[in-house]
Amino acid sequence: MTPSLHVPRPEDATRIAALLTPDPLAGALAGLFLAAPRRTGKTTFLRSDLIPHLEGRGFAVVYADLWSDRAADPAELIIARIKAALERHDGLISRLRRKSPVNRVGALGFSVSLKESGDWSGTIADALEDLIEATGKDLVVIIDEAQQAVETDAGLNAMFALKAARDAINQAPGDRHLYLLMTGSHRDKLSTLVQNRQAPFFGAGVRPFPPLGAAYVSAMAARVNDALAETAQLAPADLEAAFDTVGRRPELLTDCLRDLIFAPEGAGPAALRRIAAERKAQAEIDTLSEIAAMTPLQQGILRLMAQKGPGFQPFAEETREALKAAHRGQKPAVATIQTALNALRERGFVWRREHGRYILDNADIALALARSDTG
Fold this sequence. Notes:
Elements: H1 10-18, E1 32-35, H2 42-56, E2 60-65, H3 74-88, H4 90-97, E3 110-114, E4 118-122, H5 124-135, E5 139-144, H6 153-171, E6 178-184, H7 187-191, E7 206-208, H8 214-225, H9 236-245, H10 250-261, H11 269-292, H12 296-308, H13 317-322, H14 334-346, E8 350-354, E9 357-360, H15 363-374
Parallel strand pairs: 1-6, 1-7, 2-5, 5-6
Antiparallel strand pairs: 3-4, 8-9
């Protein structure tokens, strides 16, 4: 195996970059929203493939990962990356500010001390406008796990600030543009940014994030075969099947391949199928073990959410009636349900879309519960 397991994805990077154009038919000037399940290679692709490709094509890029610090407010993470971009282009900002040295203040205003430019103060929109003018380049702002922004008022305000900046820059005279690219690990979560008139990007659509496909599977097959005996060689179709079994998660596939390499001599496709099935089963066992340690009411809420999906209404009379069996035969009070939901959020099982609306944090929870109930 080579020291790095990253498989470059130039075709996917090229396809996404082609959407960053002001062309009203082929472009995504209103914003590009891409969703795929957790741990399926989104962040690696953004950092290792897409950002270098965009910079190579002459874009300036600001990248913020809202999962990089789960304790920080999403707005703080976005502003921190914008500050870093201002610092990176300090010299260009300095020349720009000789023409316009006035500090600006407003909603979500922030300050940064630049070595050459001195103290800079302004809003998110001000900063992005300055970066575009100073660099003379179109700017792409990439927000990874963007759905986290709706969890705080400041984070949601940062999304509205990005929208305002997009509109101001793209509608102004000139040929420079601001493109927004947002990813999410849950389609329903990411949709909260676009799905109603109160959402910051109402009217935009959520598309599937480009999945790891045949090129990745073929490359991994070639790499693992270098470490396997002649009698244990794998075809790409063998890896494709194992990849599907583990939810198309590259880390889990890599773990399976490591186990295969150290399996007894002669292990081949059949052993890989067994290892992948065991990995999948163990992941479900781990999830169910966590659930089994919860209170009966918390378990009842999770099962009801798995059945209802996005239509789950936590405080409806029907819900309270359905939870009686999990609450000593009595309908739980609204406050009791809220306390249980808060605990589930803290444990990473439930995500709040907006006040009073909740969904399971990922689809694996519902699948594990369904299999346990039928098995």
